[in-house]
Each structure stands twice: as structure tokens, then as C-alpha cells.
Design goal:
It comes from Candidatus Nitrosymbiomonas proteolyticus. Keywords: Membrane, Transmembrane, Transmembrane helix. This is DUF1385 domain-containing protein. InterPro entries: DUF1385. The chain is an alpha+beta fold. It has one domain. The chain contains twelve helices and four strands. It has a four-stranded antiparallel β-sheet with strand order 1-2-3-4. Helix 2 packs across helix 3 and helix 4 packs across helix 11. The longest helix has 28 residues.
Length: 340
């Protein structure tokens, strides 16, 4: 894989595992309850939306990338959840945890977690996010009028500060939960694996341990950039005010902001993309410092078993892409390639 394509490698921490994606494939590595590492690698499907070139233009491709990540994340979560619940991967009484198992698992018709369940969870999560990080800050900022704050710019600025506080506070609080802590450890493992690849080093456990758990193209950094861009744009943007009702005013302010979120996502995506290409620049690292520091909240130091999962998932997509480029007869299969 050419070095230029390393920037197209991304990942996501999931339930007891890691999802990795490359330009042509995506893989999911999951640590099953019995200790086995279950790995599945598939080609990326090009949807009708994905074939629209205009959606890949700068400042438009950010929204498409988010939708694409959400779709792959949905598939990965279903796969990971089903592995955790599948009877054949449970640790029975008197058994010890098994060794690494890189055998791809084909889709099953009797999946425990259905598409509707995962889809509903994602929709509920999205709605809760919009309420907590957009509507509620607007509603609370309007209450500042009771304290004599009348300047619209000041109220807008208070709104944006509240968004930052709510976001960081939410991340900190959920990080105290044991299951989320493990998720954040897998997040750290994902970063370490990708950093190993981008450093041009062999994808081994020893090399991966030495890498930082921070990464400039992380979704956490993206969220921080979104908050910064929102603060710059929304602080000085006129917003409606309904004198008769502060609730209606907060709803109106929320509805004005909502259509601009894709634009903000597009700008933030370009910033993160540029930062990934210029990660050796001290100036760029200084500008991205808030996002990198926030990753200390969303990542934890992983143990070796977690790093093995991330490395197996990363090897799978790298080798699958290499095999696709050199032809179908160049390898003995994705599972063997991933075993490295």
C-alpha cells in the first residue's frame, strides 16, 4: 500500500474490538468471551451516494465521510454484539480462554442482535446528542437574560461555551463506567496500530506498544474542531428571538443552527484531513493541541490482548487491499493474510 493511502486508513473502537477500514476494505476484530479473536474482512460496497463525485468535493465530503463512518460503525457494532452473545463463543465452566482465531465469520441468519435494534439505538443516541449538545445549551444560555445579559453576541458565546463544557463533561462521566473504560482502551489500541503503520514500522506487538495512543485524525479531535468552528460561526451569527417564550426562542435558535451542521462538519473534516498530512509540522500540532489533549479522555492505555485485536484488524485490510491490487491469485485468502 502506498504511503499516500495510509491517510485513508481509519478505525473505530467497538464492543470488545476494533473496526478498521482502508480504501477498498473494512474489517472487524472482536475478542470473544472465550478469548478467541474473531476476525471478519469484507470489501467496501459502493452505494449510489458513494458513486456521486460531487459529494467528494472539498467541504462536501466531510458530511459524506460521517455518514459512511456511521454505516460501517453500525455493521461493526452488530457483528461485535452478536459475537459477544453467540453460544459458540461463550466461556464454559472449567474452560480456559482460547488462542488467537483469525477465521472470518460469515454472516448468520439467526443473529441475536437485529438491525432494527441497533438502528433504533443509533437514532436515539443521535437525538439525545442533538438535545444535550445543541438544544440544551441554547435553552440555558437564554436564561442568562435573567442575570442582565442582553447582548446577543454574549448569549451566543455562552451557548458555545456550554456546548464545550457539556461535551467534555459527558465524556469524563461516561469514562468512569467500566465498560466504557474498556471501549476507550480499544480506542487507544486502534490509534497505536494506525500510528505504527504510518510510522512505516512492521505491525508487531512490540512496535505497537511504543506508539502514542493519540492521533490527529481521531474522531475526538474532529469533535473538538467542530466545537471550535461552531464557536467562531455561531457566536457572531444573528439568531431569532421570540419575546413571549424562551422555550420557543431556544427551539428557534436550535432550528437555525441545525442546517449549518453539515457545513461545519465539512470545514472541520478538511482541517483534520490537512492536519493528518502535516502531522510533522509543529504549528499544526500546536493548533490541534486541544483535540489531542481531549483524547486523553477518550483513550486509555490498552493491554496486549487489545493491541492484538487492533493489529489483526489492521493487517486484514492492508493485506486485502494489497491482494486486490495484485490480483485474485496472489494470496491464500484474507484470513491467512491477516494472521501475519
Amino acid at each position: 500500500m502506498p504511503n499516500s493511502e495510509y491517510l485513508q486508513i481509519g478505525g473505530q473502537a467497538i464492543i470488545e474490538g476494533v473496526m478498521m477500514r482502508s480504501p477498498k476494505h473494512f474489517s472487524v476484530g472482536v475478542r470473544a468471551p472465550n478469548g478467541e479473536l474473531v476476525l471478519q474482512c469484507e470489501p467496501l460496497e459502493k452505494t449510489w451516494i458513494g458513486r456521486q463525485r460531487w459529494l467528494k468535493l472539498p467541504f462536501l465530503r466531510g458530511t459524506w465521510a460521517l455518514l459512511d463512518a456511521l454505516t460501517l460503525g453500525y455493521k461493526a457494532l452488530r457483528f461485535a454484539g452478536n459475537i459477544q452473545l453467540a453460544p459458540e463463543y461463550q466461556l464454559n465452566e472449567g474452560e480456559s480462554k482460547g488462542e488467537l482465531d483469525n477465521t472470518p465469520i460469515p454472516p448468520k441468519h439467526n443473529e441475536t442482535i437485529g438491525a432494527i435494534q441497533v438502528g433504533m439505538a443509533l437514532v436515539v443516541g443521535l437525538l439525545m446528542g442533538l438535545f444535550l449538545f445543541n438544544y440544551l445549551p441554547n435553552f440555558l444560555a437564554i436564561q442568562a437574560k435573567s442575570a442582565g445579559v442582553e447582548n446577543p453576541i454574549q448569549i451566543n458565546f455562552i451557548t458555545e461555551v456550554l456546548k464545550v463544557i457539556f461535551f467534555l463533561g459527558y465524556i469524563y462521566l461516561i469514562s468512569l463506567m467500566p465498560d466504557i473504560k474498556r471501549l476507550f482502551q480499544y480506542h487507544g489500541a486502534e490509534h497505536k496500530a494506525i500510528n505504527t503503520l504510518e510510522a512505516g514500522q512492521e505491525l508487531t506487538l512490540e512496535n505497537c506498544r511504543k506508539q502514542t495512543r493519540l492521533h490527529p485524525r481521531c474522531g475526538t479531535s474532529f469533535a473538538i474542531v467542530v466545537l471550535i468552528v461552531s464557536m467562531i460561526l455561531f457566536t457572531f451569527m444573528p439568531k431569532p428571538e421570540i419575546e413571549s417564550s424562551r422555550i420557543l426562542t431556544s427551539i428557534a435558535r436550535f432550528l437555525v443552527e441545525l442546517p449549518l451542521l453539515p457545513l461545519i462538519a465539512g470545514i472541520s473534516f478538511e482541517v483534520i484531513r490537512f492536519a493528518g498530512k502535516m502531522r510533522s509540522s509543529k504549528l499544526i500540532n500546536l493548533l490541534l493541541w486541544p483535540g489531542l489533549m481531549s483524547q486523553y479522555l477518550t483513550t486509555r492505555v490498552p493491554d496486549d490482548s487489545m493491541i492484538e485485536v487492533a493489529l489483526a484488524a489492521l493487517r486484514a485490510v492492508v493485506e486485502a487491499d494489497a491482494q486486490a491490487e495484485s490480483g485474485p491469485d496472489s494470496g491464500s485468502g484474507l484470513a491467512a493474510a491477516a494472521a501475519g
